[in-house]
Amino acid sequence: MNPDANAATSSFMPDSPDSGAPQPPVARRQPVEQAVHGDRLVDDYAWLRDKSNPEVIGYLHAENAYTDAVLRDTERFQEKLYQEMLGRILQTDLSVPYRLRGYLYFTRTEEGRQYPLHYRKRDAEDAPEELLLDLNELAAGHSFLSLGAFAVSDDNTLLAYSLDTTGFRQYTLQIKELGTGQTLPERIERVTSAAWTADNRTLFYTVEDETTKRSYRLYRHVLGASDADALVYEEADERFRIYVERTRSGAFLLLTVASHTTSEVRFLPATQPGAAFRLIAPREDEHEYYVDHHPGWTGDSSGGVFYIRTNSGGRTFRLVTTDVDDPRRDTWREFIPNRPDVMVASTQAFESHLVLYEREGGLPYLRIVPLGTGARDREGDVLASSRRIEFAEPVYNASPGANPEFVTDYFRFQYESFITPRSVFDYDLRTGQQILRKQQPVLGGYDPSQYVSERLHAAAPDGTRIPLSVVYRRDTPRDTSAPLLLYGYGSYGISVPVTFSSNRLSLLDRGVIYAIAHVRGGGELGKPWHDAGRMHKKRTTFTDFIASAERLIALRYTSSSRLIIEGGSAGGLLMGTVANMRPDLFRIVISHVPFVDVINTMLDASLPLTVGEYEEWGNPQIADDYDYMKSYDPYSNLERKAYPTMLVKTSLNDSQVMYWEPAKYAAKLRTLKTDANPLLLKINMGAGHGGASGRYDYLREIALDYAFLLTQLGIRN
User: In this predicted structure, what is the pLDDT of residue 166?
Assistant: First the structure.
């Protein structure tokens, strides 16, 4: 960091005109030129990549100073919004406990403290609480804290946990003796996953490469051993990342090796930590499979069966079984066939049931499949005997909750919608009864009947129906006068969930409509939806979003002069591209940690994520990929014309989208935009990709966003 930030900022600040209005910083130009496939690529702001350069830090401080100056008149409004949002939260609260090996595990939040406290107690009446981790204490002296691994040994005496204190997703693993409260001397750096074996003294963990942050090595650690940890596996292919976990049955450790399009799985008996991992089926291009274990029933092989979710036979996956003793691919038996319109997104095995997490028609569902003696051999009647948990609202999110125990009569899931606060249910596997354990409290007299949610569709240029999820206050006019905030993402096959936000009420109650465009490139309609918006079909994501905006205007929900759009990370790429394509369509653009410098980033294989993401964006070392990527790259396609009002946000320690991408983007755009609309860049100097980690700090970031967009719309109270 620059020791004298104020001195560093001054050299970037131009002289103010007579009006005294704040003036944006000016980044110097230092052209860096390279030739790619005969194309001349010039970057005037590549120097901003050098975080160790005080001039760079000074420029970032200057951007923050300018943003703060522009938003100074909104500070009182920011505080009002912050207090409003804080007033809806039950600050001292408990999570719903989950059971594991005779204990109940839960978290507590306390008023005035940024982070939760992790507890457990015996599953018995009046049992005392044991404090496992106080994240507030562990965060002391740090501006950021994130908890990664959290794994308790089989005998319940040891906790392996990992922490990131910078926001750079760089986790350090430690082990705590829960009986004494003492932390063991082991400190293992750059850990990405961890799992105990059954002997309560052997821990397998994966680590990342120091430069690319790719999770690529698996080690075996034995408590108290003097020898160095044994390297068990190293993945050489830079497209692939590895992850280790324990099956819910407890019988095996699984090592999953996966790229964006291909995977393979190895397994190790949890009682044999010194043995070698065995491969289930070798990787094949475009074949993904993922595994869970069941010990089986009388007549099964001694090791039981693997349930395998595979996209062989259909892009939306099917379910097969195989004996643990001989899991080769030619032994796989179909259990649930592929259904082209139903994406099997995950599978969880329990003693008496399987639970499938499915997506159909852009909505999530949970399917309960009974198991029993010979059930794995049934063909054709598995779905007939299953039960799907149905939900009544037109748009919602449902997902599995904390279910660590294999032998259980209940399956826990979470449900929420734009209108229904997050709710934790236990589903009785015997009767089908749904038991509400807790619904997120919303203080201040929240009345869900005052809000309306809808599922709409827009027609893409090729005729494809694009789902839209919409919520608004019941008394909001539908005459084009209402502001509308449209959110989008559309990459990696990730679905944007329809979630409840008590913070969002501060917008809805001021007449702002909120909508999500579930564009292609995401996963809302399964893997084919992702396929239709990646690689050389990526532009579909952008035209889907534009069509969604136009549809909302045509239906009189809003007008282009009242339309705000928002996205983050790859959704920030979406924001940058559509702002280039149709700047006339949007009033305000809010981009969080935006991936806007696609070509320069993807040309640098040393950066985190780059090589693995060739399967998402393409490889610019290939001429056709380069040409296609450059056709939509936001940074390369900035030009001299009018742009919407913009708020661009990033974090100095972001390891997924480096801070310099939005910094370069803002610097270049300032030299080209012909309008007088504000362009603000806000940098969190002590966080990573997700912004502030403390709950109060995070609320203040939202309050700034809301105050900015509302005041730009003329709403000031």
Answer: 96
**Whether the predicted model's global pTM rises above the 0.85 cut:** yes
Whole-angstrom distance, CA of residue 173 vs CA of residue 150: 10
User: Which candidate in 592, 689, 693, 705 is catalytic?
Assistant: 689
Reference 187, options 209, 163, 208; nearest CA is: 163
Is-catalytic flag, 162? no
Q: How many whole angstroms separate alpha carbon 9 and alpha carbon 650? A: 18
User: Region 578-589: what's the mean pLDDT?
Assistant: 98
Confidence of residue 168 (pLDDT cuts 50, 70, 90): very high
pLDDT of amino acid 101: 97
Q: Please give the average per-residue pLDDT across 35-53, as a whole number.
A: 97
Angstrom distance (rounded) from CA 628 to CA 515: 29
Q: What is the pLDDT of residue 380?
A: 54
- What's the chain's length in residues? 717
Amino acid 16: pLDDT: 53
Best CA proximity match to 215, nearest among 277, 148, 267, 270: 148
Same fold flag, 144-280 and 447-712? no
If one compares 518 and 13, the residue with the highest pLDDT of the two is 518
What are the strands, taking DSSP E only, across 62-112? 93-94, 98-100, 103-109
Owner of token pair 């049992």: 127
- Asked if 301 and 323 touch (Cβ cutoff 8 Å), the reply is yes
- pLDDT tens track for 45-74: 999 999 999 999 999 999 999 999 999 999
Q: How far apart (Å, rounded) are the C-alpha atoms in residues 545 and 542?
A: 5
Q: Give me 449's structure tokens.
A: 């009947």
- pLDDT the model gives residue 19: 59
Please name the residue that has the structure tokens 């399956």: 411
- The answer to whether the CB of 325 falls within 8 A of the CB of 305 is no
Decide if 654 is catalytic: yes
495 assigned to active site = no
Q: Which has the closest alpha carbon to 205: 167, 175, 183, 165?
A: 175
- 551 Cβ partners below 8 Å, 6+ apart? 456, 457, 458, 459, 466, 468
CATH 3.40.50.1820 given to domain 447-712: yes
* Count of CB atoms situated within 10 Å of the CB of 128: 6
pLDDT tens-place string over residues 296-345: 864 444 689 999 999 999 999 999 999 999 999 999 999 999 999 999 99
Q: Which residue has the tokens 């606060």?
A: 421
Angle between helices 539-554 and 623-632 (to 10 degrees): 20
Token pair belonging to 468: 């839209």
Q: Is the dihedral of CA 488, 490, 492, 497 positive or negative?
A: positive
Share of residues in the chain with pLDDT > 90 (%): 93
144-280 folds as Methylamine Dehydrogenase; Chain H (2.130.10)
Name the superfamily (CATH) of residues 288-440.
Answer: Prolyl oligopeptidase, N-terminal domain (2.130.10.120)
Q: Take residue 444 and report the two structure tokens written for it.
A: 């201040």
pLDDT digits (tens, 9 = 90+) for 100-142: 999 999 999 999 999 999 999 999 989 999 999 999 999 999 9
Of 340, 329, 321, which Cα lies nearest the Cα of 378? 321
Per-residue tokens: 183: 């932390």
The rounded distance, in Å, linking the Cα atoms of 38 and 375 is: 61
Cα distance between the two ends of the chain: 37
Residue-averaged pLDDT of the chain: 95
The domains of the chain are located at 92-141, 144-280, 288-440, 447-712
Angle between helices 695-712 and 75-86 (to 10 degrees): 130
- For residue 458, give the H/E element and its range: strand 451-459
Q: What is the largest CA-CA distance in the chain?
A: 88
Catalytic residue among 43, 544, 633, 654: 654
Which of the following is catalytic: 569, 636, 651, 693?
569
